[in-house]
Amino acid sequence: MKLVILDRDGTLNEDRDDFVKSPDEWQPIPGALEAVARLCQAGWHVAVATNQSGLARGLFDMGALNEMHLKMNRLLAQHAGRIDAVFFCPHGPDDGCDCRKPLPGLFHQIAEHYGIGLDGVPVVGDTLRDLQAGAAAGCRPHLVLTGKAARLDPAGIQHIVSRVPGTVVHADLAAFVDHLLASSPSSSIPHFPKAAGGHD
After folding, report:
1. Domain residues for 105?
2. Are 128 and 149 in contact (CB under 8 A)?
């Protein structure tokens, strides 16, 4: 199957220094929803892997997180797109879990969910830890210059590229999708494996 794994905050939606805490604060990055829809229409499945330490910090609860993701998929549906499943780490930085990026636990969950290996699966994110987590699971790393990466100077971008060999840099999610579809001739052929359920 054809699978892409995306970070959430800073890749799909606008990042916030004070965390995205409610559906109202979940605002898509311009062009991101359309980019996901183009992937879906080309036969790709899209999963999200996201750190959500705001849960551990008490900034929002599971109900609010579920509402954010309902909003996300509702907006995507308007463009004929969807996120198959959201995998999230609810822990804080000192909790000692194996699912908080840059550790690859979320990616192992995704591999188990789909029953596939992740070698060569594209992972897209705006931070070093997004790419480190994906690369540790065998994914191909793609950095988008939105979210936290929008603040990087050329030296900062080069630092990430040097830390995660093979990283490809794109202006945003739409540019990544342009790159992926152009380099995947078969992506224009619809591909409909058994639908996967969500993971909240």
Report:
1. 3-188
2. no
pTM (two decimals)? 0.91
Distances (CA, A) of 76 to 36, 37, 39, 124, 140: 8, 7, 12, 18, 25
- Catalytic residue among 9, 15, 84, 130, which? 9
Cβ-contact 126, 143 below 8 angstroms: yes
DSSP 47: E
Number of domains into which the chain is organized: 1
Classify residue 158: in a domain, yes or no: yes
Residue 13 CA to residue 33 CA, distance in Å, equals: 9
Q: What is the mean pLDDT of each run of 10 residues along the chain (200 residues)?
A: 97 97 98 98 98 97 98 97 98 96 98 97 98 98 98 98 98 98 63 37
DSSP-derived secondary structure for 61-76: -HHHHHHHHHHHHHHH
Rounded to whole angstroms, the Cα distance separating 197 from 99 reads 20
Q: Please say if 153 is a catalytic residue.
A: no
Residue 37 sits in a domain whose CATH number is: 3.40.50.1000
Give yes or no: 24 in active site. no
